[in-house]
Design goal:
The protein has 722 residues and is mainly beta. It has 6 helices and 52 strands. Among the domains are: 247 residues, no CATH class; 97 residues, Jelly Rolls, CATH 2.60.120; 90 residues, no CATH class.
Length: 722
């Protein structure tokens, strides 16, 4: 954009030495992973920031913050925030007054003199501003100007579109963002059916539904290719968290069981008087002496000498050994190589049995259970993988990540906190239990979470849908009086002749001003042409046939300033004549726009990044841009320094270049993108419970940044229902 007359100085950063690797700013930028912050200013809009330290995304001494707000047109529409022209408005107040979720700065504008944007503006299908086009070769003229905005098109289910509807689980409704969308929002729910040719994108939570029943799901997300009669749900962000509560938070009762149930090797002593028998195993086949407890099923193995112990005394002695069934509260000691002293022990002798039990840290086989829903499932190992067809439980004592089962459940304080239907290798945190479920019983547990409580509704009655498109537009407005039609070249705009004066676009096209015009001095005065006319209620109310300044005195007034050739026709007009004003524009794509505004550089076209490092495209500066796809999803993005430097408040340095911004937007799902004004004009503001807050450059103490450039137009996200 054009630089202001006052330019704050900025400090020179450290010079990188030859040993420090330099970032290739024209190569792929760092990925947008591990978000710094996530906000939901209003349900249906997700705001996420990522922070890169100096030297990561570029070679400047500044850190970088990338801020993205995403939604879709069925949930949040595009509105233009503005005051009367020319004029500025507070970004914060604009968000509050318009009940917007998010706002960003938009079109370039002139910092010399009146802040007139470089591109036109259309609101609710009506032009509010149209300047002259500028070409470096031909200068200013009435011509085509680049615009981006909201259009309506006939929907195609295969390509997807943003629409209304809901997903209800157990009576709790979640609003959907669209049907068969090519990419997922940062925060929202998208429905997919068999009309989409490709498999669905992968969300944070994925469900597959048939006949109002969940037949498959993954709380970590996976892709589905729904067949006829099936519906896939992909949810992200806070919407995914809400759906995840349908599965997590359920009560789970765990019984870890006891080691004796499966037996173990040990070191122990059975003491009878002065005789000690060394024990090598409990409830486990062994060539050495073994203790059997009531957890042993059936007859024990037979060794050379057998003692049956009950209530601390030897109840029976089998001098040649015998297989014995262990009764309740009994021990059976099978002695492999008895001494004479052992054989001399009689029934009734007092005896003490002691042995080391396995610890949870070292792991053991067990006979535990997990009660999930109305079903019980066996746990056969604690921190001990055993290859069985039952559940193995792991605690934080297990070093590193656990082996992955076919299904993984994480439990804390008796509640399921995470569930992975495809199984994950995870590390149990302190106080957590990780249940790894084998393939044989995984379907049964999945069934415990499924049920007939999923209802999906999608509105497919729309004949046209809203989407976003960039094109070029030109003004085609006119005023007809006395059968004479005079063309107009601008709306609420003037162009200085360099000497302080202003004039209409050319000798054959006039300038029109309506009640959106504020005037340079706030008095709604217009700049003189060769002839001046004011129309009120369809009738000429005032006329100056030689031209002169004229005010837009009342709401609904129209003031026309005509070129020199047009002025000749005005000489026959008189006050009281009927006047017909037609406000009209034309676009090169001939599509009906609801809203548009100007932009600067195209970044992505039909999925291909067209931004490059030529023509200063490699310069790292604060950037503002918008990306979208044909289904009506969009992403607003800013790239700026992550920390405020008071000495760098005018034309700010740091941020990103155009190719980096383009690649980030493409990675989020944008197939088209354009850039708005940047530098000192870059900002993003979100709605908060108490007002509004800056996203891209928060102040260190948490207050609103004391320096932010007010701009004439901003782009706001407002609820589509309003």
């Amino acid at each position: 954009m054009v630089l202001g007359l006052e330019l704050s100085a900025f400090a020179i950063g450290p010079v990188y030495s030859a040993q420090q690797p330099l970032v290739n700013v024209c190569a792929a930028p760092p990925e947008l992973s591990n978000p710094e912050n996530e906000f939901t200013p209003k349900p249906g809009v997700g705001v996420t920031t990522w922070k890169f330290e100096p030297g990561v995304s570029h070679n400047s001494w500044e850190d970088t913050r990338v801020s993205v707000a995403s939604s879709s047109l069925n949930l949040f529409d595009w509105n233009i925030g503005r005051t009367k022209i020319p004029g500025f408005l507070s970004p914060y107040q604009s968000v509050i007054d318009n009940n917007a979720a998010v706002a960003i700065n938009s079109d370039f504008f002139n910092l010399w003199g009146d802040p007139l944007p470089w591109g036109p503006a259309l609101e609710d299908g009506e032009l509010v501003y149209f300047p002259l086009a500028y070409d470096s070769q031909t200068g200013y003229s009435p011509d085509w100007i680049k615009v981006v905005g909201v259009v309506s098109r006939v929907p195609d289910p295969a390509d997807g579109w943003t629409t209304t509807g809901s997903v209800q689980l157990d009576g709790n409704a979640q609003i959907i963002a669209g049907l068969n969308l090519p990419s997922l929002p940062l925060d929202g729910v998208v429905v997919y059916d068999n009309r989409r040719a490709k498999a669905s994108p992968i969300g944070d939570v994925s469900l597959l539904i048939s006949e109002n029943k969940i037949i498959d799901f993954d709380l970590a997300g996976k892709s589905f290719s729904p067949e006829v009669g099936h519906i896939a749900i992909q949810a992200t962000g806070n919407a995914a968290k809400n759906l995840r509560t349908r599965f997590t938070g359920r009560d789970v009762t765990l019984d870890l069981g006891i080691p004796e149930s499966h037996g173990f090797l040990t070191t122990g002593i059975v003491t009878a008087g002065k005789v000690n028998v060394k024990i090598a195993a409990v409830n486990k086949q062994s060539a050495k002496s073994t203790v059997f407890t009531t957890n042993w099923s059936g007859l024990t193995t037979q060794k050379a000498l057998t003692w049956v112990i009950a209530n601390g005394k030897i109840k029976q002695v089998f001098l040649k050994g015998s297989p014995v069934a262990v009764s309740p509260n009994q021990y059976v000691v099978q002695i492999a190589k008895p001494t004479k002293a052992m054989k001399a022990i009689k029934s009734g002798s007092k005896v003490k049995v002691s042995y080391k039990k396995p610890t949870i840290a070292k792991g053991f086989l067990t006979d535990g259970s997990a009660h999930i829903g109305s079903s019980n499932f066996s746990i056969t190992g604690i921190n001990k993988p055993n290859g069985s067809n039952e559940i193995t439980l792991f605690t934080s004592d297990w070093e590193g990540k656990t082996p992955a089962g076919a299904l993984t459940i994480i439990v804390k304080n008796g509640l399921i906190t995470s569930l992975y239907t495809e199984g994950q290798s995870v590390k149990a945190a302190e106080g957590e239990y990780v249940l790894q479920v084998p393939e044989l019983i995984a379907p049964e547990i999945r069934t415990a979470f499924s049920g007939p409580n999923a209802v999906v509704t999608v509105d497919e009655t729309l004949e046209r849908i809203k989407t976003i498109a960039d094109t070029k537009a030109r003004i085609r407005s006119s005023l007809t009086v006395n059968g004479e039609k005079l063309l107009l070249g601008t709306l609420n705009y003037y162009h200085s002749d360099g000497g302080g004066g202003a004039y209409p676009p050319d000798s054959d096209k006039g300038a029109v001003y309506d009640d959106n015009w504020r005037g340079s001095n706030g008095d709604a005065a217009t700049f003189p042409g060769s002839a001046s006319v004011r129309v009120r209620n369809g009738v000429i109310q005032k006329i100056n046939k030689s031209g002169g300044s004229m005010t837009v005195a009342e709401p609904g007034d129209l003031v026309f300033q005509f070129g020199s050739n047009q002025a000749q026709l005005v000489q026959d007009w008189t006050v009281g004549m009927s006047a017909t004003y037609v406000s009209k524009y034309q676009t090169k794509n001939d599509e009906p726009y609801e809203t548009f505004l100007g932009y600067g550089t195209r970044l992505i076209t039909d999925g291909s990044v067209v931004a490059n490092c030529a023509n200063a495209g490699d310069q790292v500066r604060p950037r503002t841009a918008v990306g979208w796809n044909d289904a009506g999803q969009y992403w607003l993005i800013t790239a700026s320094p992550a920390s405020r430097d008071p000495s760098n408040s005018g034309y700010r340095t740091g941020g990103a270049n155009y190719p980096q911004v383009a690649r980030w937007l493409k990675s989020l799902g944008a197939t088209h993108a354009v850039a708005f004004d940047g530098g000192g004009s870059t900002w993003m503001v979100r709605r908060t419970t108490s007002g509004a807050a800056r996203v891209d450059l928060p102040d260190a103490d948490g207050n609103d940044n004391p320096w932010i450039r007010w701009v004439p137009f901003n782009l706001m996200l407002v609820p589509a229902s309003e």
